[in-house]
Amino acid sequence: MTMSNTGGRRKPPTIHDVAREAGVSRGTVSRVLNGGHYVSPTAAEAVNAAIRRTGYVVNRHARSLITGRSDSVGFLLTEPQERFFEDPNFNVLLRGCTQALAAHDVPLLLMLAGTQDERRRITRYITAGHVDGVLLVSSHSGDPVAEELREAGVPLVACGKPIGLVSKVSYVAADDRDGARDMVTHLLSLGRRRIGMVTGPLDTPGGVERLAGYREVLAEAGVEADDRLIASGDYSRASGEAGAEQLLDRAPDVDAVFVASDLMAQGVLTALRKAGRRVPEDVAVGGFDDSPAATAATPALTTIRQPWDRISSEMVRVLLAQIGGEDPAAVILPTELVRREST
Fold first, then answer.
1. How many whole angstroms separate alpha carbon 73 and alpha carbon 53?
2. DSSP 126
3. Would you call 48 exposed, middle or buried from its count of C-beta atoms within 10 A (0-12, 13-18, 19+)?
4. Rounded to an integer, what distance in angstroms lies between the CA atom of residue 122 and that of residue 244?
5. pTM of the model
6. How far apart are CA 152 and CA 127, in angstroms?
7. Cβ-proximal residues to 171 (8 Å cutoff; 6+ apart), any chain
8. Can you tell me the distance from the alpha carbon of 217 to that of 223, in angstroms, rounded to the nearest whole number?
9. Pairing relation of β-strands 230-232 and 284-286?
10. How, if at all, do strands 303-305 and 336-338 pair?
11. Which distant-in-sequence residues (6+ apart) come within 8 Å of 304 by Cβ?
12. pLDDT digit of tens for each residue in the chain (343 aa)?
C-alpha cells in the first residue's frame, strides 16, 4: 500500500492494488467482485487471495452507482418503539437475520415505524431505493405498508402470514395453528376442562391462527367453547395481566390458561399470584414462542417453541432469492411443545 502525501497516513488499498498483487487486470478483479462470471477458478482464487493480503474493502457506494443496488436490506418493525425493547422475540429475530445476512456480506438496517407518519416516511425511504429489499415484521391487517411496497416492486418477505396478501407476498411463518392445537391438547391431557385463552391481536396472523387452533381442539374434544373464557391481548405483559384478571372475574373456575405469547404469560402469572391461585396446582399456564421470557418466568413456562433461527435464516434466504429475480415464496415451519413447571 502507498503512503499519503499528508501526515504519512496509509491510503486504503484500491482495486488497482488488488489487480497488481494478483497479477491480473482490473477488469478481472471487478468481475470477481460482482459475482465471478467469466473468470477462471485460478484467477478468482488469485484475486480473493490478493484481497485478503491487501485488506481491500469494497466501496459499496461506488458499486451501487454501477449496479443500481444499495447492497443493504431493511428490517422493518411496524410496532411502537417501546414494543421492540419489551418483546424479546423481536431482538432474537433481528439478531438471527443480521447473522444470516453477514454470511453474504450484506448489512441490515433497523427501521421502526409504529405510527402512520413513521410508516409513510419509511415507505418513501424504501421505495427511493435506499435498500434492496425488506424483512417485514408484525404486519397488522389494514396496515398499508406491505401492499405499498409490493406495488412499488420492492422485494419483500413477511414474518408470519400477511393477512390479505398471502398469495401475493413472500412470507416465512411458524405453524401457529398447529402449535396452538398442541398446547391445548396438552392441557386437556392433564385433565383440565375449563381452559381459558388470552389471545394475541386478532388483526395479526399469529393472533388469528392461535385462537383458531384453540377453538378447534376444544370442539373436537367435546368441551364447550365458552366466550367468557377468551380475553384479548396485544402481546404485551400488561395485556396478559389484564386478560387474566378478566378471565378470573368472568370464569372463576378456570383451571388452565393458554396464552398466545410468553411475555403475556408472565402477566398472567402475576395476575394469578395476586388472586392467590397456585400454578400449576390450581391453574396450569401454557405460553407460546419459547422466548427468554419463558425461562425467566416463575414457574418456568410450558410453551410452544418457534424455530427462530430457522425463521430468520429462511427469511433472509427467500429475500435474497427474490432480490436475485426469483418469484415470491412461502415457508411454514413446524413448532414444538416444550414442557416446564407451569403445567
1. 29
2. I
3. middle
4. 36
5. 0.76
6. 7
7. 157, 158, 159, 160, 161, 162, 330, 331
8. 9
9. unpaired
10. antiparallel
11. 179, 180, 182, 183, 286, 287, 288, 289, 290, 335, 336, 337, 338
12. 444 444 455 677 888 888 999 999 887 887 787 666 678 889 889 988 988 888 877 665 555 444 445 588 999 998 777 777 778 888 889 999 999 999 888 999 999 887 889 888 999 999 888 899 999 987 666 678 888 888 888 999 999 888 777 668 899 999 999 999 999 999 999 999 999 999 999 988 899 999 999 999 999 999 877 899 999 999 999 999 999 999 999 999 999 999 999 999 999 999 999 999 999 999 999 999 999 999 999 999 999 999 999 999 999 999 999 988 888 899 999 999 999 999 9
Cell of 13: 488499498
- Please answer whether residues 116 and 143 qualify as being in contact, where contact means their C-beta atoms are separated by less than 8 angstroms: no
Residue type at 184 in one-letter notation:
V
All three cell numbers of 111, joined, read 427501521
- The answer to whether 160 and 335 have CB atoms below 8 angstroms apart is no
Non-local CB neighbours of 18 within 8 Å, separated by 6+ positions = 29, 47, 50, 51, 54, 56
For residue 76, the cross-strand partners are 111, 136
Measured between alpha carbons, how far is 253 from 64 in angstroms, rounded to an integer? 63
339: CB partners within 8 A, 6+ apart: 186, 302
- The whole-angstrom separation of Cα 137 and Cα 75 is 7
Cα 306 from Cα 206, distance rounded (Å): 12
Strand partners, 333: 174
Q: Under 8 Å CB-to-CB from 132, ≥6 apart: which residues? A: 69, 70, 71, 72, 73, 155, 323
Measured distance CA(237)–CA(203) in Å, rounded: 18
